């Protein structure tokens, strides 16, 4: 008995928790925590401000899904916004040009340019084979003939360092000519790559400990000469707040096309990724996760987002809650099915609710024992426009017609088609779909309630 009571109380509590929209107070309270998390993750201060300002209006007024707290809901919204700001999806290298396609590596000294050059060269020359290849796609799924050249004439050992890495990775490097200047090396590298039929030429440049005019001028000249398809700014994820100034300086002078973030293997929470992206507007394309030449990975915005926020648990909690609600809706539908009461109003409700899940196909997919029907439905791929059209058709029906579609004969069909701006065939098609669904549901009903619920339970 007590169990029943506490359960009921729990239900009430759940309803209270997730009721209504996010208030300004809810949002601001949660955003204070987000701010701290971003700063702890070493996101640059101006970027933190800009981020908070852009997510705030998105969160205020948003619906709180049942069974999560307003604070948790804000975190989920912040997370999604962060993923979006980080580019949403994995950004590919663009190597679509007449070979040799040039990749220019720029950045401060010690940021990881030489190491990253070798990593990218290795990955491209392996194609879909080799260590850790399975996580790469896009430009990396084609095996390429790669040449590397070091333009770092400042440090005596720099060119040699690249040559050694070239031997380790099995990627050819341009032979070293003592005392040759960076621009001359660039010219020779381009000629060699052309003459010897290389697909890709990676130019590893010299860095400085801080931004300076001489370095910038030199890199600019190299860029003008080599006309790189990709100019990758290499930045150390551990540099934190400084990352912004570096990114800005390079981006102002060169057409940076992407960012390689190194040392994401360390303690860094990756806040630099957001700073770099926000300041340059360029995507982070690759991350370095160790010193070895195979420790390179594509950049996944969602993974870095939860690392930056450090609130991955909350995000998955809210996602699970959202799934539960979808499941509850499906169970409500199942109850209607059991009672044989699935009319046009229900179909309309389901169409609206399930539009995000891929329309009727999604709905059919949620019903057990619907494999044949599902296969039939997927032949007629239902798109968004079609869904909206179906909605319009139902809306053009009278309440009576919706409750009992059997009364819809020729003249009514004509009226409905006219009212919803479609052809009579479209009305027919929808009616047939509904009839087919009912038929299928009846068949499912014969399985008996137990079997039905069991299969429902297994559909999570
Ligand atoms: P450059 O001066 O920009 O060419 O930098 P280097 O490529 O020479 O790298 C400087 C140091 O950082 C070397 O000791 C590298 O092994 C190390 N390094 C580069 N990338 C990474 C990375 O992703 N993770 C770790 N842990 N170390 C890295
Ligand atoms: Mg170097």
Automatic annotation (TrEMBL):
GO terms for cellular component: plasma membrane; signal recognition particle. GO terms for molecular function: 7S RNA binding; GTP binding; GTPase activity. It is an enzyme of class 3 (hydrolase). GO terms for biological process: SRP-dependent cotranslational protein targeting to membrane. GTP binds at residues 107-114, 204-208, 262-265. It is a peripheral membrane protein. Residues 283-296 form the SRP54-type proteins GTP-binding domain. Its EC number is 3.6.5.4. It comes from the Bacteria. It catalyses: GTP + H2O = GDP + phosphate + H(+). PROSITE patterns: SRP54. The keyword Protease does not apply. It is found in: Cell inner membrane; Cytoplasm. Keywords: Cytoplasm, GTP-binding, Hydrolase, Nucleotide-binding, Ribonucleoprotein, RNA-binding, Signal recognition particle. InterPro entries: AAA+_ATPase (IPR003593), P-loop_NTPase (IPR027417), Signal_recog_part_SRP54_M_sf (IPR036891), Signal_recog_particl_SRP54_hlx (IPR013822), Signal_recog_particle_SRP54_M (IPR004125), SRP (IPR004780), SRP54 (IPR022941), SRP54_GTPase_dom (IPR000897). Part of the signal recognition particle protein translocation system, which is composed of SRP and FtsY. SRP is a ribonucleoprotein composed of Ffh and a 4.5S RNA molecule. Involved in targeting and insertion of nascent membrane proteins into the cytoplasmic membrane. Binds to the hydrophobic signal sequence of the ribosome-nascent chain (RNC) as it emerges from the ribosomes. The SRP-RNC complex is then targeted to the cytoplasmic membrane where it interacts with the SRP receptor FtsY. Interaction with FtsY leads to the transfer of the RNC complex to the Sec translocase for insertion into the membrane, the hydrolysis of GTP by both Ffh and FtsY, and the dissociation of the SRP-FtsY complex into the individual components. Composed of three domains: the N-terminal N domain, which is responsible for interactions with the ribosome, the central G domain, which binds GTP, and the C-terminal M domain, which binds the RNA and the signal sequence of the RNC. Belongs to the GTP-binding SRP family. SRP54 subfamily. This is Signal recognition particle protein.
């Amino acid at each position: 008995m007590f169990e029943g009571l506490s359960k009921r109380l729990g239900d009430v509590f759940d309803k209270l928790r997730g009721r209504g929209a996010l208030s300004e107070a809810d949002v601001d309270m949660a955003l204070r925590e987000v701010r701290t998390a971003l700063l702890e993750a070493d996101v640059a201060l101006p970027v933190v401000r800009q981020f908070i300002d852009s997510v705030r209006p998105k969160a205020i007024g948003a619906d709180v899904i049942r069974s999560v707290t307003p604070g948790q809901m804000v975190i989920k919204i912040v997370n999604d916004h962060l993923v979006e700001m980080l580019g949403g999806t994995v950004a590919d290298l663009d190597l679509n040009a007449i070979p040799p396609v040039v990749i220019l590596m720029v950045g401060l000294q010690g940021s990881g340019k030489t190491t990253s050059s070798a990593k990218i060269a290795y990955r491209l020359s392996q194609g879909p084979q080799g260590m850790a290849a399975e996580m790469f796609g896009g430009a990396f799924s084609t095996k390429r003939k790669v040449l590397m050249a070091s333009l770092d004439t400042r440090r005596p050992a720099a060119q040699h360092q690249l040559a050694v890495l070239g031997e380790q990775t099995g990627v050819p490097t341009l032979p070293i000519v003592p005392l040759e200047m960076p621009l001359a090396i660039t010219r020779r590298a381009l000629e060699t790559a052309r003459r010897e039929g290389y697909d890709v030429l990676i130019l590893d440049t010299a860095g400085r400990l801080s931004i300076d005019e001489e370095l910038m001028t030199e890199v600019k000249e190299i860029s003008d000469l080599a006309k790189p398809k990709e100019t990758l700014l290499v930045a150390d994820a551990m540099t934190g707040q400084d990352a912004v100034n570096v990114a800005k300086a390079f981006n102002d002078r060169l057409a940076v096309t992407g960012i390689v973030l190194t040392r994401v293997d360390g303690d860094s929470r990756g806040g630099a990724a957001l700073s770099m992206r926000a300041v340059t507007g360029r995507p982070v394309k690759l991350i370095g996760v160790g010193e070895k030449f195979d420790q390179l990975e594509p950049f996944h915005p969602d993974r870095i987002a939860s690392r930056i926020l450090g609130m991955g648990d909350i995000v998955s909690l809210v996602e699970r809650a959202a799934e539960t609600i979808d499941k509850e809706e499906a169970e409500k539908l199942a109850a209607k099915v059991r009672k044989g009461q699935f009319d046009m109003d229900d179909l309309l409700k389901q169409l609206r609710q399930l539009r995000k899940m891929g329309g009727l196909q999604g709905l059919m997919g949620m019903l057990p024992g619907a494999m044949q029907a599902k296969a039939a439905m997927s032949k007629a791929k239902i798109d968004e426009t079609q869904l909206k059209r179906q909605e319009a058709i139902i809306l053009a029906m009278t309440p009576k017609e919706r409750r009992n579609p059997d009364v819809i004969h020729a003249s009514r069909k004509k009226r409905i088609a006219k009212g919803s701006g479609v052809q009579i065939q479209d009305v027919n098609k929808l009616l047939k779909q509904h009839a087919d669904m009912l038929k299928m549901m009846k068949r499912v009903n014969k399985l008996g309630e137990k079997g039905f619920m069991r299969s429902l339970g297994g559909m999570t």
